[in-house]
């Protein structure tokens, strides 16, 4: 998949098996944090060019946080 394809910037679900550093969305914005093993929603940031992670909540992503980031603020 080419990085310029629209699917790259859409949210999709992944399982993280090993801890890694990554940008995690919080109420305060995207911050560099340790991403612990578990299930996350991820997408590629348009402005930073990096992978952005978001917590899942009971099988669903926190829609209020992602709605803000979907408009291209990230």
Structure characterization notes:
The longest helix is centred in the C-terminal third of the chain and has 11 residues, at 63-73. The mean pLDDT is 77. The chain has one helix spanning 63-73; strands at residues 12-16, 20-26, 29-35, 38-44, 51-57, 60-61. It has one domain (6-73). It contains one helix and six strands; from the N terminus they run ββββββα. The two termini are 21 Å apart. Strands 1, 2, 3, 4, 5 and 6 form a six-stranded mixed β-sheet that branches. By secondary structure, it is mainly beta.
Brief write-up:
This protein has 74 residues and is mainly beta.
Number of helices: 1
Mean pLDDT: 77
Structural class: mainly beta
Largest beta-sheet details: 6 strands, mixed
Number of domains: 1
C-alpha termini separation? 21 Å
Give the low-pLDDT segments: none
Helical proportion? Answer: 10-25%
Q: What portion of residues belong to β-strands?
A: over 45%
What's the count of strands?
6
Helix-strand pattern, N to C? EEEEEEH
What is the overall shape? globular
- Calculate Rg over CA atoms: 12 Å
């Amino acid at each position: 998949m080419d990085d310029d394809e629209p699917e790259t910037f859409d949210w999709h679900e992944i399982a993280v098996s090993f801890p890694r550093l990554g940008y995690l969305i919080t109420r305060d914005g995207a911050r560099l944090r340790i991403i612990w093993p578990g299930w996350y929603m991820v997408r590629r940031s348009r402005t930073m060019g990096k992978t952005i992670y978001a917590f899942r909540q009971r099988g669903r992503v926190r829609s209020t946080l992602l709605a803000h980031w979907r408009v291209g603020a990230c």
